[in-house]
Amino acid sequence: MGSELIYRRHESQPVSDSYSPKPDKPWASVVRPIRYMLREQRLVFVLVGIAIATLVFTVFPTSPAPRVPRHQFIDPIPDSISYFPVDAQNKFSHPHRVGLGSSNPAGKIPLGLKRKGLRIVVTGGAGFVGSHLVDRLIARGDSVIVVDNFFTGRKENVMHHFGNPNFELIRHDVVEPLLLEVDQIYHLACPASPVHYKFNPTNVVGTLNMLGLAKRVGARFLLTSTSEVYGDPLQHPQKETYWGNVNPIGVRSCYDEGKRTAETLTMDYHRGAGVEVRIARIFNTYGPRMCIDDGRVVSNFVAQALRKEPLTVYGDGKQTRSFQYVSDLVEGLMRLMEGEHVGPFNLGNPGEFTMLELAEVVQETIDPNAKIEFRPNTEDDPHKRKPDISRAKEQLGWEPKVSLRKGLPLMVSDFRQRIFGDHKEGSNTNNGESSS
Question: Per the UniProt record, which residue ranges are transmembrane (predicted)?
């Protein structure tokens, strides 16, 4: 039986040319998230998170910061260091190597915000000048690392910072390498008095090591040089542009030429390796914590007068010096470090005294009956020494504030306590100090 194809057009089912998906069920957008939260106990985690957030905001409530008028800002630096320049506050509110910009063009930090402290190393920080510098840096809120071998420094000078989390003390000689992470380096480590540097002649290895550290970590480096780089000067007063008159083989040359070489190395690292450097040339400085009997004229005179010994004047006593109080020097060093100028800068008091005039001031302050004894002058002793500080005035806005007659009694009080002890501190308090 043959096959038969039957075409029944009228019996064919209509076929649609288009496809449409199943219509969404009503409330699907609400039901799906609910099912997701209920699946695998996700709702429990959501509720726990809400409870924790509520507890945190209850225990530590936040209050909106008070509106501060644009003109009401405060200086973040304490009154004791109010000399800190406004532009330096603006630039160094964060470590200087983080960046050059600032989100606060006014140069002030708004009320309620604190300046971010720097991490600073002070070599020779247990010494006379170094310990006073450490005091100011700690008061400013910086973290300070003192590095000292205690050849001339004294642990007693910094003991009052023991226990402060922002203070560290390392017994170390900088002639050996030292690895630290710091933002700034104040390099003060060096015997500065004739008694000490003649006993242990200065070398420049310590300066070389500290410059190497500054190069490795990108720290700013400040060298404390000296007015001795001018030698026995033929220019008076001495400007920073004067190259000096130094005996390279004399008994003082270990100190004079050592500092001159240190300045050379500092500038070579600046020009050749891009290290940020600052150079200060320090003139005669006095104040509390000076080494007793260190051969420097102020400490010699004060110690001799307190002990009722003759004041020893070398030569004819007509050679001149300039004396600045230690707080003035520290102010100048900090301004130099935070400023934009390399230097060198003379940091000293331009008030000039002969040795005989200084002896008279010490007599007035301590003992009017103190005798003066003349002795042969020492070799290579400079005849005149007076700084020209016009560069520091113009570029740092710095000049000394404390006169010799105001600063000397403060030093005398410290020496009296250290020589005689606490039980005799007040025995001669009025002996001449009232005349200052």
Answer: 42-60
